[in-house]
TrEMBL record:
Location(s) in or outside the cell: Nucleus envelope
GO biological process: poly(A)+ mRNA export from nucleus; protein import into nucleus; transcription-dependent tethering of RNA polymerase II gene DNA at nuclear periphery
Species this protein is from: Emericellopsis cladophorae
Protein name in UniProt: Nucleoporin-like protein
Domain of life (superkingdom): Eukaryota
UniProt keywords, alphabetically: mRNA transport, Nucleus, Protein transport, Translocation, Transport
Nucleoporin Nup133/Nup155-like N-terminal domain segment(s): 16-472
Length: 1267
């Protein structure tokens, strides 16, 4: 009989996709609902609209389509069993008799063979209630040997019923006699296909026992024809043996075929499904079969992938669909195989692998209540496969035409089509106990079909599930499976099932992803983001868009996002980093939205009836229409605030930023009274702090949950690694800038109100509510914190951008952050007396200078309070206690943070109170002051004082003073003093070492000190030479009225040796001269330039001053290193040699010896050589260079001073050097300079020796006179 499906109402959806719906029906008998451990099995008789459950003692029947949770139930007592452990009875509902409207019931006790038949469930139940006893017709199967059990009963009405035994035997059962009266008869089936034996000639049992290697009987099914009084029966062996015969009412039967299909089926599996080759052919098992339905509409014949045998109407051809498997210990490969069976042969057709389910069947579980069942409801487009804890829905529809599909068809491979699996919870409380199916009516319905009470539009599988009741798995639109765009299983649909149905209470389904169903990482990422966005925007069909209670709606959506991530974690989805961060950002927005809605409720509750529009309402109104969904009043959307929270949470960043725009407009436009504006400002501040602080807090607490535990956060924002991420919504440029402006406005407005309150104390104007003003002031630290966090976050993001303009903007924000984290907390402390909150802010944002300054200023502030008149003793004690506390905190922070705190503290002391405050600071007990001073070269002038006073470290004081004198000092007098102090410190260090009782003077230390003293001596040479030169130049500036005039006078007198055309060299000379006149330290090479280029003052007596060229040589010797000193000396000698007119000196014509001698003794060369010889160490003879040896110096490569000069200036300087070379070369080649050089040198040597002799003689006379 064709099954007619019922219409289901008031079912609870447990899963919903674009292909199918899973619903739990409400109707379930109380005795089953109350005892989930009750041992039973059953079936769903969809054609009758009833479900049947069989326990050891009762048969329970109820209308499963009832809308009542406790439906009308028919319960029947069953014959008691005399044997313990007997299997559950088998049974089925029977078509109603002509005199009844309700079906009958047939039950067979599996172990004893007792049979009970009730002609009508309703009348039988009523009579049994009155008589208190069974009222059905009873009988017993005779001839059952010990151990034989009834496994199953197959309804083959109107021909009868077929019983299947665990021994492989089959029996025909009839419930009416020849006159149509209730009567039970049983006869074992006989067949001519096998030889007779053992009293059962040709029984089906012998057919299977002769092929014992082929396994047990897997299933016996009857065809679905409408022929009255006869049915075709097919028995399937577990190893692929198929037998078919036709039975008639009364038990007569005739064979229709007997084929072993195992090898054909295995070959077809291997050919069409490459993955089947991973399994051994020996593991093949046939599990179930169904007859392919007949009488289909022509369009469905075209849509189905099954063969043309669907259109045959030949009762001798058995068109079957088998459920088979190949397996190993860990997995199984299931498939649907089409088989066409005739009397003489069988062949396979379509092979449809099942790819979504691979759990193997455990044959060790003898208590398993159900075997796998296969259903192919009319119109044969979708098949259902029911396992013990899962159900598979698989399309067998023809796929849209494509080249790939054509290739697969030519290879006998079914193209990929829709398939999905519905899993029940893997516990003892949920397992499939029975099943059935619903289907469309045949195209040409008989009178019997038309009289069926239930109809459906789409095929379904009905499942009786322990702990859940009746579950309906129904396709949503069967025609879509054969359309151009058939439904597909997507990563998104899987996520939606888990997110929106996995949380439902008492949902028997689980939605953890099966390993058989896999998606690419890209698909998973895109699907997760799409589901998340749809939740944010309420575009998903699974959440209502018109909630009566918005708070619950927001909570539900937040929970959905949490479940989404939980599902992705459970399924170990490999999401990329950008996706994880975006999912987290979306969850933050939803979390903040829920909190903001609570604030909105509080805002409106606190407002008066005529002023309910809060800052949130204004903000929603102000947001540009391009950035929000506009309400449609024509559709009843008249609440813009709720509309925004339902549709636009994804733009939470804009909402928070626009809050400031609202305040700005209202403030600048004077649209509100002071009190109203104060309320609005306070609300805006709460919106800002709620959104930022709650978002960053949520981010920190959920980082690991979103798979980002390896990320480094600072105050809730990502420190690095923004590459590839979208702009964080809490730190967009717009949001950060708006937060900063709101913080500024709130602070300035509050400050003005405080000043106004103090100045207008006697005013009659209505003041701002002081309690509200205190709240606003109290909220300023949180607003400042949110602002700083937003600015810092955008700076991090923008600085890592690939765009130059973004990086520049990021640098500007980073600079703003560094500035604000110092200044903003100080403002809170000084203006609003929020010292503690300000200190906490600086700690949080690690502004150590800000923290130090707040501590120090707070102490100064408190000390000022102590000095005020009128302060009582108690108040003074309290303030003093706070001062001591602050000092303790400073010491604690120095100990905790070390130089990170101490150095900024000393910076602030110097800025505000000068260097002396650093030396006077008494709270440093860790030596951090010394570290600070020694790290700052610019503070070296006071570092040596600390070295001496605090550290008693004369050696370091020497090093400091010497370093300052050499590298940092600008004033020559200071340098002279510093060198002197350095020498004293060095001597003091030596004396201290020598004074130690256990001191061992190490020769290397003594040598080092001697070398250091020599270095100081050498450095003092340059200072001395500079002072001596200054004394020569100073008289020329006596009449100058200012520095500029002094420089001009000096250039006129002393710059005549430099040709005016050599402007660059004059410029160098003038710059050096200016430094000399200003007492700046002149570098050695510049000092050498001054000494070798300047013209002596003719009004001064040369004998009072040292020779300038000799002075230059002293500078080169003492202050120029290595090769620089050699080149400097060559430069000095060259300029010395070209200073005199050698052409004139060489012309001795008409001159006597005295005149010639007087001429060379008046040269600059003689003067320099005389001083060189006279002041040279007599123990080492003086060897001046030859004139030709000083040629070429600095003509190609200038000294390092001019490295930054332009190319033209450098060229001109080299030209000046070459000009000197040219003059010297001329003197050498044409005026016999080398010979004159020797002559002058000898004359100077003789003169020095004569002077020494005279001094020696004079000394002897003095000694003789004294004697």
């Amino acid at each position: 009989m064709a099954a007619q499906p019922p219409r289901l109402v008031h079912a609870v959806d447990n899963a919903l996709t674009n292909a199918y719906t899973v619903s739990k029906l409400p109707a379930l008998p109380d005795r089953i609902r109350s005892d989930s451990n009750l041992e039973l099995q059953g079936e769903i008789a969809c054609g009758f609209g009833y479900a049947l459950a069989l326990t050891h003692t009762h048969a329970i029947v109820w209308p499963y389509t009832s809308t009542s949770q406790s439906p009308e139930t028919f319960a029947f007592n069953l014959p008691s069993s005399s044997r313990h452990g007997e299997p559950l009875p088998v049974g089925c509902l029977v078509s109603p008799s002509a005199a009844a409207s309700e079906p009958g019931l047939l039950v067979v006790m599996a172990g004893s063979g007792k049979i009970v038949y009730w002609e009508s469930i309703s009348s039988a139940a009523t009579f049994a209630f009155i008589k208190k006893e069974r009222t059905g017709v009873e009988s017993v199967i005779s001839g059952m040997p010990h151990g034989e059990k009834v496994d199953a009963i197959t309804n083959a009405e109107s021909a009868g019923f077929v019983l299947t035994f665990n021994t492989g035997r089959l029996a025909y059962l009839n419930v009416r006699d020849a006159h149509g009266r209730p009567s039970i008869s049983v006869q074992f089936l006989r067949s001519a296909l096998a030889p007779s034996g053992s009293g059962f000639f040709g029984s089906i049992r012998h057919a299977f026992s002769n092929l014992s290697i082929r396994g047990d009987v897997a299933a016996v099914r009857a065809d679905r024809s409408n022929r009255v009084g006869e049915r075709n029966i097919v028995a399937l062996g577990s190893k692929g043996k198929i037998q078919a015969w036709k039975i008639h009412r009364g038990g007569h039967n005739e064979p229709l075929g007997d084929i072993d299909m195992r090898d054909q089926i295995v070959s077809a599996l291997y050919e069409s499904d490459p993955k089947s080759e991973d399994y051994s052919a020996d593991s093949f098992e046939a599990l179930d079969l169904v007859f392919v339905p007949k009488g289909l509409e022509p369009k469905y014949l075209q849509l189905s992938k099954l063969s043309d045998a669907m259109a045959l109407d030949d009762s001798d051809v058995q068109h079957l669909l088998l459920l088979v498997s190949l397996s190993n210990n860990h997995s199984a490969r299931y498939a649907l195989v089409e088989v066409i069976l005739t009397a003489t042969e069988g062949h396979t057709g379509m092979v449809r692998p099942l790819t979504s389910y691979s759990t193997p069947i455990s044959h060790a579980d003898v208590a398993r209540p159900t075997k796998p069942r296969l259903y192919l409801p009319r119109p044969a487009i979708v098949a259902f496969v029911v396992f013990d804890r899962a159900a598979v829905i698989a399309s067998v529809a023809m796929q849209p035409e494509s080249p790939e599909a054509q290739l697969q068809s030519d290879s006998h491979i079914l193209p990929s089509s829709f398939e999905d699996v519905v899993d029940f919870r893997e516990d003892n409380a949920h397992e499939v106990l029975g099943s059935g199916f619903e289907e469309l009516p045949p195209a040409y319905a008989t009178e019997e079909n038309r009289n069926q009470r239930h109809k459906t539009k789409n095929p379904a599988a009905m499942l009786l599930v322990r702990g859940a009741g009746v579950i309906r798995l129904v396709t949503t639109d069967i025609d879509k499976f054969g359309s151009e765009k058939p439904p597909t299983v997507t990563a998104k649909s899987k996520m939606e099932q888990a997110v929106f149905f996995g949380v439902k209470q008492e949902n028997p389904l689980i939605f953890d992803a099966r390993q058989e169903v896999s998606f690419s990482n890209q698909e998973l990422c895109e699907a997760a983001l799409e589901v998340s966005r749809e939740v944010l925007g309420s575009t998903t069909t699974f959440i209502a868009t018109l909630p009566a209670h918005l708070e619950e709606n927001l909570r539900a959506r937040a929970n959905a996002l949490e479940r989404l991530m939980d599902y992705l974690r459970t399924t170990k989805a490999k999401l990329n980093r950008a996706t994880r961060w975006q999912l987290l950002f979306n969850a933050e927005k939803m979390h903040v939205a829920a909190l903001l809605w609570k604030r909105q409720e509080a805002f409106t509750a606190e407002r008066s009836a005529d002023d309910k529009k809060s800052v949130i309402g204004y903000t929603v109104e102000f947001i540009n229409e391009k950035h929000k969904h506009q309400p449609r009043p024509a559709l009843g959307e008249v609440d813009p605030v709720r509309h925004w929270f339902i549709n636009d949470i994804d733009r939470m960043d804009l909402f928070v930023a626009w809050t400031y725009e609202v305040i700005k407009v209202l403030y600048q436009g004077s649209m509100l009274s002071d009190q109203q504006f104060a309320v609005m400002l306070f609300e805006a501040m709460q919106v800002l702090t709620c959104s930022h602080s709650m978002a960053t807090s949520f981010r920190q607490h959920n980082l690991a949950f979103y798979g980002l535990s390896g990320e480094e956060l600072d105050n809730g924002i990502l420190v690095r690694g923004y590459e590839g991420l979208r702009e964080p919504w809490t730190g967009t440029s717009f949001a950060a800038n708006s937060a900063r402006r709101l913080a500024e406005l709130a602070a300035s407005w509050s400050e003005s109100q405080l000043r106004k309150g103090r100045s207008d104390a006697d005013s009659i104007a209505k003041p701002i509510d002081q309690k509200l003003l205190r709240k606003i002031v109290g909220a300023l630290p949180d607003v400042t914190d949110s602002m700083l966090t937003a600015v810092h976050e955008f700076a991090h993001f923008a600085e890592s951008s690939g765009r130059a303009d973004h990086r520049l903007q990021g640098q500007e924000f980073a600079s703003t952050y560094d500035k604000d984290k110092y200044e903003r907390p100080r403002l809170l402390a000084h203006v609003f007396d929020l010292w503690e909150a300000a200190a906490d802010l600086t700690k949080k944002h690690r502004s150590m200078k800000g923290l130090a300054s707040i501590f120090l200023d707070h102490i100064v502030h408190l000390e000022a309070v102590l000095s005020e008149d009128g302060a009582g003793d108690a108040e003074k004690q309290r303030v003093q206690a706070v001062i001591e506390k602050k000092k303790t905190e400073i010491g604690a922070n120095m100990a905790r943070f070390g130089h990170k705190f101490a150095f900024p503290l000393y910076d602030y002391l110097i800025e505000e109170h000068g260097a002396g405050a650093v030396l006077d600071f008494e709270l440093d007990t860790a030596g951090l002051r010394s570290q600070y001073l020694r790290s700052k070269n610019e503070l070296s002038k006071i570092t040596w004082i600390n070295d001496v006073q605090q550290d008693k470290d004369a050696a370091h004081a020497y090093q400091t003073l010497f370093r300052v004198a050499l590298a940092a000092e600008q004033q020559v007098w200071n340098k002279k003093v510093e060198l002197s102090l350095a020498r004293l410190a060095l001597l003091a260090d030596a004396e201290a070492e020598a004074a130690k009782p256990d001191s061992l003077i190490v020769q290397t230390d003594a040598k080092r000190r001697a070398e250091d003293i020599q270095m100081i001596k050498e450095e003092r040479v340059a200072v001395q030479m500079q002072e001596m030169l200054y004394e020569q130049i100073l008289p020329s500036t006596a009449n100058a009225i200012d520095d500029a005039a002094a420089l001009n006078f000096a250039m006129e007198v002393h710059g005549s040796n430099i040709p005016r055309k050599q402007k660059v060299l004059r410029k160098v000379f003038e710059h050096g001269l200016e430094s000399l006149l200003q007492h700046d330290v002149v570098d050695p090479m510049t000092l050498i330039d001054l000494l070798t280029l300047f013209t002596p003052n003719p009004d001064l007596d040369d004998e009072e001053y040292a020779d300038p060229f000799w002075m230059a040589l002293q500078v080169a010797e003492s202050s120029c290193p290595g090769d620089v000193a050699n080149d400097a000396k060559r430069l000095i000698w060259r300029r010395l040699l070209v200073r005199d007119d050698w052409a004139k000196l060489n012309n001795t014509n008409l001159k006597n010896d005295e005149e010639v001698t007087a001429s060379f003794m008046g040269t600059a060369l003689y003067s320099c050589l005389y001083q060189c010889i006279a002041k040279h160490d007599a123990r080492e003879p003086f060897h001046p260079p030859r004139p030709q040896d000083v040629l070429g110096v600095f003509t190609e490569q200038l000294d390092s001073r001019f490295a930054k000069f332009g190319a033209d200036d450098q060229a001109k300087l080299r030209e000046a050097m070459k000009q000197e070379d040219k003059l010297l070369t001329t003197a050498i080649e044409k005026h016999r300079l080398p010979e004159w050089f020797r002559t002058v040198f000898d004359g100077a040597t003789t003169q020095v020796q004569n002077y020494i002799d005279d001094q020696t003689a004079a000394g002897a006379l003095i000694q003789d006179g004294a004697a």
